[in-house]
Amino acid sequence: MSENLDKSHRNKAGESKPSDSEQGLGGALERSDEALQKEVKSDAPSPQRVGRPHSGPPRLVTVEELLETAKGVTNMALAHEIVVNGDFRINTVELAEGSLEKRVKEIVHKAFWDCLSVQLSEDPPTYDHAIKLVGEIKETLLSFLLPGHTRLRNQITEVLDLELIKQEAENGALDISKLAEFIIGMMGTLCAPARDEEVKKLKDIKEIVPLFRAIFSVLDLMKVDMANFAITSIRPHLMQQSVEYERKKFQEVLEKQPNSLDFVTQWLEEASNDLLTQKYKHALPAGGGAAGSGDAPVLTPVSVQNYAYLKLLKWDHFRRPFPETLLMDQSRFQELQLQLEQLVVLGAVLLVTFSTAAPGISGHADFAEKLKMTVKILLMDMHLPSFHLEDALTSIGEKVCLEVRSCLSLCGPSPFSTNEETVLKGQVQALASPDDPIRRIVGTFGGQSLGGCLSSFLLM
User: Fold this and answer.
1) Which superkingdom (predicted)?
2) Which of 160, 254, 309, 311 has its CA 20 to 30 A from that of 18?
3) DSSP letters spanning 2-26
4) What per-residue string of b and e applies to 55-73 under the rule 16 or more CB within 10 Å gives b?
5) CA-to-CA distance for 97 and 107, rounded, in angstroms?
6) Are the C-beta atoms of 238 and 82 separated by less than 8 Å?
7) pTM of the entire structure?
8) Helix, strand, coil: what percent of the chain each, to 5?
9) pLDDT digits (tens, 9 = 90+) for 248-284
10) What pLDDT digit, counting tens, does each position of 97-128 carry?
């Protein structure tokens, strides 16, 4: 999208674009505020926050402070999403069919355009509404221009001079069709190549009211294009400043609400306490003291941080509040958690299969790849509420035994016996329990590797 817009500004407008587009980003932030809040609410569940540990006495907060903080957090979430999600785009909001909001919008729009139609059909025509629409179109076209587009700015200002248009209307000399023709031509100059077809269709509309309605519809699409162009342009700058920017914003929130990061504190304290217990001391690095001092495990900030991220991979998102500093990535952690659970079951099935059927199949790489893809397909819907792991593992056990029997019959030293099939099916079925030893082993090693990668990535 950014390449198209850049191309349109160079080839159509004939003038170079500046390296920065902060004004465009400001518009993007404002226009996407509501859409982002809806997206965050839909992607990240909002658990009931009870039992919050208070780090300090509560203080009264004014409405102005609340609104300012909410706006700051929303802008921070938008900036974070732009940096983390390379495919982030602002899309037009489509109202649900048959919803009250959509019906009200249609009624209001119909009343407005009917009023315009009545005014233009009078004798002589009344152009009050039409002139206001031309003023809105003028401001929208000017908002698309970059600072270097002086020639285009002068053309728009000169042709769409509202005072002159009012005088022409009063004297009966206004040619509204000529104004519409200029507007369509300017839209064709400023739009992205992807919008050329929509702009071209405007030339086929002869009635004034439907033409104005279609013009505003295409202008709305162009606004979205420009916002996405601004986002793409500002992304490299945000990536350089995102860490300091988010740290500053969280500090501002913490100063206004001292207990606003209590869940982060609780999350890190739990990780630290777990590591200090004998059960989790294996996750600590060995001490690097002098000779003879021993290699006793050492509790370090890095080890606490790594283990804290491990805990997020097994987080109960619907019963426990998520750490505040990671709320913007909660949906990503949920997706990682689902992928990890799928990989753990997949790895456990493969481990059980090769342990039971070896050495007859251990040397066949093609068989291992085929078996992996088969099991992965059967676990594809693992994230759905209707998925039942026990039933899936029953099917997987049958399929695995079939594949092993087929492989051994072709190239194995001995066929797969009935007793071996029964044992393999039972071991696969036992993986349905989270406490199964093989599943726990695979989950421990896989989770530790992924947890370390997560902490390194998120703190780069």
Assistant:
1) Eukaryota
2) 160
3) HHHHHHIIIIIS-SPPPS--HHHHH
4) eeeeeeeeeeeeeebeebb
5) 14
6) yes
7) 0.56
8) 70, 0, 30
9) 878 887 887 788 788 988 999 988 888 888 555 555 5
10) 888 888 898 899 889 899 989 988 888 888 88
